[in-house]
Specification:
Elements: E1 2-9, E2 12-20, E3 27-34, E4 41-47, H1 54-60, H2 64-70, E5 73-77, H3 115-130, E6 133-142, H4 144-155, E7 163-166, H5 176-186, H6 198-203, E8 215-219, H7 225-229, H8 232-241, E9 246-250, H9 257-276
Parallel strand pairs: 4-5, 4-6, 6-7, 7-8, 8-9
Antiparallel strand pairs: 1-2, 2-3, 3-5
């Protein structure tokens, strides 16, 4: 990976990086924060939402003070492959900036849109190879990235110690964003969509015996709450399967990074406790 920018922050080092991905067949960008202190460190992977790049989280989330305190590396990749020759769509909720953390099986998306494999295979191996990690990690994200964090953690439990999300797309098989993206990337057979639906996975017991709790924060003033996010479906699924899931409805908060920055410390601490014990 090539470093494009470096910043000192909270005693640690933040790097913006770029590399040629063998998974997506494109250049991919990301940021990595390495805290101060004695190496090695566990890793916390952040997945961002629709239209975002790695820069949204890096500059707006305010996560690095808590990461430095708890001794956690934070990795924030871009949300999709990009570039000339990469398939795209004029709408904000499909194509570049909207990878949905799935491996596409449909043209024209198939060659490059392989974000599930990118995160769970290539990215993890790169980080472990190039940074001082303990080779243990957790995952969290926002909106489309909350969907990605939940589904990747539930489908690849051997990779992650814990999972949380801010305002996730809880059941993409039952909202317009998800139906559009999954239909485009995976085709019309809805049976193939189920493994990318966190509520359905939890209902079917995918988290049982793996995650002691799943932390979800959701603002009650979020304009996408009722039609797109539907966190109540996660709660219902958890009750049906006996899975512990903590949904915190936050009064007055919307879908923006102001909301995430307000509760980011809680999420970093939640994961740090499961990665390396209480600070």
């Amino acid at each position: 990976m090539d470093t494009t920018k470096t910043h000192a922050v909270h005693g640690g080092v933040l790097r913006y990086l770029k590399h040629d991905s063998t998974t997506t067949g494109t250049p991919m960008t990301l940021s990595v924060f390495v805290p101060p202190g004695e190496e090695p460190f566990p890793v916390l992977i952040w997945l961002s939402g629709l239209t975002c790049t790695e820069d949204n989280f890096t500059t707006k989330a305010g996560a690095y003070r808590a990461a430095a305190e708890h001794g956690v590396i934070i990795v924030a990749p871009d949300t999709s492959p990009r570039g000339e020759g990469v398939a795209d769509d004029p709408a904000y909720d499909l194509g570049q900036g909207a990878g949905f953390y799935v491996d596409a099986t449909q043209a024209p998306w198939t060659p490059n849109f392989r974000m599930e494999s990118y995160v769970t295979d290539e990215l993890i191996d790169l980080i472990d190879a190039e940074f001082p990690t303990t080779k243990t990690r957790s995952i969290f994200g926002h909106s489309m990235g909350g969907h990605g964090a939940l589904t990747l953690a539930l489908n690849h439990p051997e990779l992650f110690q814990s999972v949380s999300a801010f305002a996730p797309i809880s059941s993409p098989t039952r909202c317009a964003w998800g139906e559009k993206a999954l239909g485009a990337y995976l085709g019309p057979d809805r049976d193939g969509w189920a493994r990318h639906d966190a509520a359905l996975l939890i209902e079917n017991g995918a988290a049982q015996g793996v995650y002691d709790d799943i932390l979800i924060d959701q603002g009650d003033a979020d304009p996408f709450l009722t039609e797109q996010l539907k966190p109540e479906l996660l709660v219902e699924a958890a009750k049906a399967s006996g899975q512990t899931l903590t949904l915190r409805m936050q009064p007055g908060y919307d879908h923006s990074y102001f909301f995430m920055a307000s509760f980011m410390d809680d999420h970093v601490a939640f994961h740090a406790e499961r990665l390396r014990g209480p600070a």
